[in-house]
Amino acid sequence: MYSSLLPYSNATKKLTLKQKVAQLFMPAAFINDGEEEILKIEDSIRTNNIGAICFFHSRASAATNFEGKKKVVYNDDSYVRLKQLISRYQKAANVPLLIAIDAEWGLAMRIEKTPQYPYAITLGAIQENNDLIFEVGKQIALDCKEAGVHWNLAPVVDINNNPENPVIGYRSFGDDKNMVLAKAEAYLDGMESIGTLGALKHFPGHGDTATDSHLGLPVINKSKEELTKNELYPYEKLIKKGVDAVMIGHLSVPELDNSGNPSTTSSKIIADLLRTDMRFEGVIISDALNMHAVSKKYAQKGMLEASAFAAGMDVMCFSEHSKEGIEEIVANASEKRIEESFERVWRLKERAFLETDMERNINSQSASELNKKIAHYSITELYGSPDILKEIKANDFLNFSLDNQSENSFSSKLEDQYGQPKHQLNAKTIDKIRGKVSEHKNIVLALFPPSIKPKNKFGIDEVVLDFIQSLISQKNVLIYLFGNPYVIDTLKLKSSSNVVVVYQDFTEFQEVAYYHFIGQTEAKGKLPITLKTFQV
User: Fold this and answer.
1) For 535, which DSSP code?
2) N or C end: fewer C-beta atoms under 10 angstroms in the chain?
3) Looking at 214, 250, 321, 376, which residue is catalytic?
4) pTM, two decimal places
5) Is 287 a catalytic residue?
6) What is the C-alpha to C-alpha distance for residues 203 and 268, in angstroms, rounded to an integer?
């Protein structure tokens, strides 16, 4: 076992061809695994000479639990567990492991009780203050480094120009290519300032699809000219600037490859377009290879990994059959091709391990401080009537909310300040709320959607949804939306409706929303997406 990473010039001489191929594999590790599963992963790392691992929450988490049959168990000690497992797996490794995780909005994307930062769509609402996005990238990078994570598989640079998108949506900075580029660049610069690796995803662009690639293969029916002008634009610009890695999404793009191959196994998309035409010289990593968009197409173990490698892939993320994949590649790939990928991956490892002692000028701030600043600059007014807030405050109003699991401090503050009792709306309280509604012309609705994703109408009960829509058509309603702005389409709101988009349900965002209501802060944000039903 090498206690530290060898320089490339030494590693390329000391490692066998099979060991070099093994450095290209990144199986999944699960924070909430039991001891039996942990021992199996340690054995695989040791015997197969695995080069990297990517951490996920649990085997029942979204990336693996496609049918939703397994219950997700939450563990308040996940962060401590993560650090313990990283230590154990590093000790099992013959060569230091490159540790990766999806931390688009912080380690909280995978780990409980860790700092959570706003979703990309919230950052997309910030106008002309990308220093805040730089700070988000920087703070996430610091959190990763403290945990022992080298590689944050972020940011998402998909341009979310399809409101029906079930998997990207809130993970995208928006639907404008220039804005997505600027925000992604600031985020990357923030990570770079700490020395944490990043990856652009999901090439060649997962924004304009209504299919979740965890479940099926999305098809992007656009011409190459359209793709070049829009989806590929941020990749092209950021590649010229210099980026560590690009992640390939599981997508079918007939205009780029009409063979029927998904981008994951398409040499036309990976080797020809990304590597040759766009001159990308960094590491190319797959999206999770267990996802049904590709995993169901390969019955023979190891063939998916070998096919992805043959197409030009460097790192096989979430490989479920590493042993067989390594053997297939060694048996069929040329030594020259293996050496090319090995060098790229090893150079990335050198950046992660050999530059860790670089002196950096680091001034950190708490997640709460940063989140409060972002709340101030992102909160967005969508008023059909410019005097709505003044009118509601000048009269009695009904103070009610659609809550999820978040603590609703916003409605409580309105009750304390204005003496308007807080009422909670759900299927069981509709009749009671209906009686209250008849007594009021003005209503403030604090909307906390149960889900951030659009599936099943963001988790909003159909009866409740109908009630809210009816209410808006009859009363003077002001909505404070503490969630995904695409909820506005689900509510079928019009330009005459009145909504303040707060984006997040964090305590800091609720506080800023309250100060907005009482007139002590202005809404400085702008909606980063175009909605179907609500045109401003």
Assistant:
1) -
2) N
3) 214
4) 0.95
5) yes
6) 13
